[in-house]
Design a protein that fits this description.
Layout: E1 13-18, H1 22-36, E2 41-42, E3 51-56, H2 61-80, E4 85-90, H3 91-103, E5 109-111, H4 119-127, E6 132-134, E7 157-161, E8 163-164, H5 175-179, E9 183-184, H6 187-199, E10 204-208, E11 216-218, E12 226-228, H7 229-237, E13 244-248, H8 257-265, E14 272-274, H9 282-287, H10 294-307, E15 312-319, H11 326-339, E16 343-348, H12 356-360, H13 367-390, E17 396-404, E18 411-415, E19 421-425, E20 435-443, E21 447-457
Parallel strand pairs: 1-2, 1-3, 3-4, 4-5, 5-6, 7-10, 10-13, 14-15, 15-16, 19-21
Antiparallel strand pairs: 8-9, 11-12, 17-18, 17-20, 18-19, 20-21
Helix pairs in contact: 7-8, 11-13
Amino acid sequence: MLPNQGSNHSGKKLLLESYGCQMNFSDSEIVASILAKEGYTTTRVPEEADLILLNTCAIRDNAEQRIRSRLEFLRSVKKKRPSMSVGVLGCMAERLREKLLDQEKLVDLVVGPDAYRDLPNLIQQVETGQKAVNVLLSREETYAEITPVRLNTNGVNHFISIMRGCDNMCSFCVVPFTRGRERSRDPESIVAEATDLFNQGFREVTLLGQNVDSYKWKVNETTEDKVSFANLLERVALIHPDLRIRYSTSHPKDMSDEVLEVMASHENICKYIHLPVQSGHDDVLKRMNRGYSREWYLQRIEAIRRYMPDCAISTDVIAGFCGETEEEHQSTVSIMREVGFDMAYMFKYSERPRTLAERKFEDDIPEETKTQRLQEIIDIQMKNAARRTAAHVGKTQKVLIEGFSKRSSEFYQGRNSQNVVAIFPVSTEFGPGDYVEVKMTGATSVTLTGEAVSVVSKRS
């Protein structure tokens, strides 16, 4: 529950649902903090909520359809509870504000990702019978000084937003239009938040950004000194050896050897990199406006493995982008085989309104062809993942315990540095937040099984 700090809304209940990427979940914690000061406490029951906010995703069409279905359900709930207000936050807000508010009348307020501080005022407007909208994007807003309320946490892992927005303008992506231009957060506030999380007992943080490699902070106006992502990564790693650090997402055109050097030199920076390739063919990458070639991407893979031979690499792949030929698709198939990714997020191309691709290219690949190409990519990745996971069997690895296995309370689950989930029997000698050495004895394509052989360090 959120703390009740007393206000005009004291005693009211908030239901806050998040969809899509981890940036949305992180933003929801900022929203929860802002509304806690207004006296809201949280609930998970729609029928008892005074205010329901959906933090939305607009990256793919199926994400929007899920949210629309949820809003239709909430309309039926509201008929039985007319005083309840429903709002949409985040990436769907700016693009669909008129449709959601006026045409379909599914919501009472629409709030963009840079306008969360205005929520108390907007809620007051709704309570007077008006519709409320603020979808203005900002060049400065980072919410740096707001302490997020930790929602739905396991007490072990957490996310820290280090920057907002994106400047890359990939032709298929709507993020620059829904989240605005890129701006980085003060490194001192990031280090302070990570330190506070560690002192609360958290043992792993993930630094979040649309493109973390382009993080930069000018120290002051009188010098040219800047804090780069590599600098920030090292500063967070130095908080404590028992604080694990992950980050997401990297962009191939911006990933530097300096970042790889920092990762290799600190044991507590996890040996896992998410490096979206999207396509294996230069012509498709050019149409996607990705800013790198196949050769450049493979050079970055070579650099990762040169610095950290044991580093796991995951990726994003789009099947059936505009104009994709069979030859271009086979180039993607071949790069999947050549790199042998540990994990991949694989999707059929979904045209998004207002993107460069929508304006410039025709979505001309038949749905059946997209499906066939995606399945071919999935089949290769399943083999890659099984091979990569099996390579851990027989090794003893450091695992951070996150909690009970989803299938049985007789087993714990945690992850190794390479982000692979490991399942092993519960013991009274260790628990969530502890690091243990686990000997890996079996594997599926996504999970390891094993036996804990020793405790490395316990959470105090």
